[in-house]
Amino acid sequence: MSNPIAELIELLTQENISNQDINQAISSMPPDDVALALESIPVSQRRFVWDSIKQTNRLDILVEMRGESRLLLLKELNDLEIAELFSDVDAEDLLEIADSLPDPMIEIALQKMDAKQREYYQQGVTYEEDEAGRWVDHELIVAAQTIRVSEAMRLFRRVSAPYSDTLYLVNRTGRWVGCVHLRSILNAQPHEPVSGFMEEEYPFIDAQTDVVKAADLLEKSEVSALPVLDSNQLLVGRFHAGHALEARRLEQEAVQMSNTGLDEDSDLFSPVRRSAASRGFWLGINLLTAFMASAFIGLFEATLEQVVALAVLMPIVASMGGIAGSQTLTLIVRGLALGQITRANFSSLLKKELQVGGLNGIVWSLCIGAAVLFWFQSPMLGFTIAMAIVINILMAALSGVIIPVVLDKLKIDPALSGSVILTTVTDIAGYIAFLGLGTLLLL
């Protein structure tokens, strides 16, 4: 199977390439693939490719691009080109990219909108970026609860938007009262009121619900879309399966990038200084933690001078603690994200993880202790590293549970900061345990 993105990148390496060649290469690619292709080439080549894209397709591609990539491209356009680009923008697209746009560009886009789209936009910006109210789709079928089946069927025939298999009913004050599925009225009599087919206790999403939790609610509902309501039970819009999939994808990408201190909106070919600055911050954090670990090692300088084998074996102790802690940390971070960890079960969970750590610590300490005994022919050295392994794995289990819970209470993302703190704790604990025991037992 051919890779159109790779083919486009290869095409750009050829000499005497024309706009027509580029347009032909991307004509069959969906907007998200074209956006990914633009992000896969140096910034200096993007304007050339952008000029080859049809005007009618440019906005869809811009929306699919990452925040930093989008901003870098917009900086290459003049005011007239930006005004033309935003001539057909709707509220949903503008809400999706607003956080990466300067205020003057947003004003240009708003001036191009009709009154209804501006209303949708103003409604959307009242919610945070990670709240369902900001993600809603407005292409839903809304009707008064008093209409009949024949009128409802006419409404269904007029709509071509995806996920349009549900009729959203409101009362005279505009408050949502329930939903009717298309399948429920297919065989109904035309004169029957649709309210008779309304499902009782139909699920809905509060507009301030976190978008990932909204995706969970949609998955459990087993329908393609759910109504999103504000605090007054007014219908804000709908949250559909497309939103849920995108929310999941963005969450996974954010976690993957945050584990290394990077932003999911980072551009592959962002300017060197900007990339170096963003990565340098976390390198500096890591350097500080490394100095802390080295400082504790320095406390046992005399011991290391007399028992050189301790220096050889130190990385084993630190590595075992780091891996054990990372396993526990990952489990707890997932539990926090899913709302599984509460005060009621925290002590039981901590006890279980300490038991797991203790069991693994004993098993692997025996293995490592036997290996060290065979290697260095020193029973006391084997006993020392075995005890240090048990202590460090127990410390890793304790830290892996407590650190993410504390960070979550402090409103700090444990997926981003937890691993840095955990590594520091397990390194220091491992070095103190191993070198401290070495000082007591081997000197």
TrEMBL record:
The keyword Transmembrane applies. Keywords: CBS domain, Magnesium, Membrane, Transmembrane, Transmembrane helix, Transport. The chain crosses the membrane at residues 280-300, 306-333, 354-376, 382-407, 419-442. InterPro entries: CBS_dom, CBS_dom_sf, Mg_transptr_MgtE_intracell_dom, SLC41_membr_dom, SLC41_membr_dom_sf. Residues 198-255 form the CBS domain. The keyword Cytoplasm does not apply. GO terms for molecular function: monoatomic cation transmembrane transporter activity. It is a multi-pass membrane protein. Its main location: membrane. GO terms for cellular component: membrane. SMART domains: MgtE_N (SM00924). Pfam families: CBS, MgtE, MgtE_N. It is found in: Membrane. Belongs to the SLC41A transporter family. This is Mg2+ transporter MgtE.
